[in-house]
Amino acid sequence: MNSAATLPRPATGLPAWARWLLTGAAALASLYLVFSVVATGQYLLGLGLLTLFASAFVIYGTNVSFAYRYLFPGVAGMLLFVAFPLLYTAQLGFTNYSSSNLLTEERSRDYLLKQTAHDEDQALISELHADGQEFRLVLRRTVDGAPAYVSGPLALRTAKLPPVITMKTPAEASFAVAQALGLKDVLEHRAVLRQLALQLPDAPTAGGPLLHYVGVRAFAPRQPVWTANPDGSVTETATGTRYAPNRDTGFFENAAGERLQPGFKVAVGWKNYARLFGDTDFRGPFVSIFIWTVVFALLTVVFTTAVGMGLAVLLNWEGLRYRTTYRTLLFLPYAVPGFISILVFKGLFNQNFGEINAILDALFGIKPAWFADPFLAKSMILIVNTWLGYPYIMLICAGLLKAIPADLYEASALAGAGPLTNFFKITAPQIVKPLMPLLVSAFAFNFNNFVLIALLTDGRPDFLNTKIPAGQTDILVSYTYRIAFRDSGQDFGLAAAISTLIFVLVAVLSIINLRLTRANQGAK
């Protein structure tokens, strides 16, 4: 008899009906989410979510390989949090998406059609009077005039009001008009008063103008500012001027080219990229910022490597006393949070009150304008970034130095070589090759070092006479942030184009880093 047949069967967890119930509930919730996204007009996003949910149900609801069940969460996370934002940003770079072009054409038209204007000539002065636990609304034609109309009792506290309130004369309402409530009480019920629509008794029953709340103490008829046309255009009610949607610019425009706000989002093709490289007024600052970004990242790597490697070699000298103390002190800049160090240096470099200028003034009688002069501002940024970055390189080089065979230095000593010969002939060649991928990564990191620029100089000083404000110490990522979120216009489409360009450059650096890493592994 097979002994395995006598072993107890493992627990199967939830019963089958419970698993089907949970699966059905999850499927309904997923479909509801997909339909909600599609209802907002995001068809591609809805299709992506539907594909993602369907894949999850297939992988976890059928007898597929268990390997897919472990891989799916990571792949789904990468698609949701890496691929989707990247693709969304890239497609924004081909649109005119900005603070003035946020809506779709339909929503922009609906916004215009909902605009109303009140007729001041027909406005009536309103007063609010207490009537027990309820209130009465009294309308006068002039401030000092007699009450013309009175409403029935209004339950303003409970907001239980009919859609249209028919006004009556004081005699018909059987209400003795007394002292009106003060401004404070009127403002307390302002939200409910805005919902009122009043019908005057002497106005035609069908199609008569309704009075709406247009001020703290006034009701007046509202007229639509725009009327819709069958071709999708709108006409200004007061003047009869027609505004048609221009799907090249993303605005409703009249024959003279005058535009209405808000605009709507349209595809503009390669226009944003053409602005980067084709517009002379825009290309100048952009090219300067791009060159400074590359120079900043490159010099940072050079300076931090020189300082960090030099200190690592010095601390590796066995004859140096108190090496542990020196190593601890030199590591401190890496232990302090970067944003704190940056803010401290911002105070140290202050032209009037900073300690650095106080020392320079005492020694040489000068007070450099670190934040006003472009060259000094860039020099200050490199000094601060070198201070922040050298401990990392120092630690890496200290570890790499331990891997160099001591026999090489012993043979060099027998040949009569000095310290500089040992460094350039033995130490540097042994360190640079394994260090190179890390240097490429450091270059890519500093290429997008937004925190340093934002906290230290905020991109200042600015370029003069530019279409879009740009700073001489801005790097591409801070310049993109400035275009997208800070300066007037908030051109998200242009910022997305620059972000896509940054991604391409960083991706190229990543590929180079991978190739260098593989080359180092193959050489071992």
Descriptive key words:
eight-stranded mixed sheet, disordered N terminus, Methane Monooxygenase Hydroxylase, Chain G, domain 1, 18 helices, 3 domains, 10% strand, elongated, four-stranded antiparallel sheet, alpha+beta, 524 residues, single chain, Periplasmic binding protein-like II, MetI-like fold
Walk me through the structure.
The protein has 524 residues and is α+β, with helices and mostly antiparallel strands. The chain folds into three domains: 16-92, MalF N-terminal region-like (Methane Monooxygenase Hydroxylase, Chain G, domain 1, Up-down Bundle), CATH 1.20.58; 116-224, D-maltodextrin-binding protein, MBP (Periplasmic binding protein-like II, Beta Barrel), CATH 2.40.430; 276-523, MetI-like (MetI-like fold, Orthogonal Bundle). The chain has 18 helices and twelve strands. A hairpin with a 5-residue loop joins strand 9 and strand 10 (234-236). Helix 2 packs antiparallel against helix 3 (66-92) and helix 9 packs antiparallel against helix 15. The model is unreliable at 1-11 (pLDDT under 50).
In short:
The chain has 18 helices and 12 strands. The chain has helices at residues 16-39, 43-61, 66-92, 105-113, 170-173, 183-188, 190-193, 271-278, 280-315, 323-335, 338-348, 355-364, 374-402, 406-414, 419-447, 450-456, 476-486, 492-523; strands at 116-118, 124-131, 134-140, 147-150, 165-166, 197-199, 211-215, 218-224, 226-228, 234-236, 242-246, 251-253.
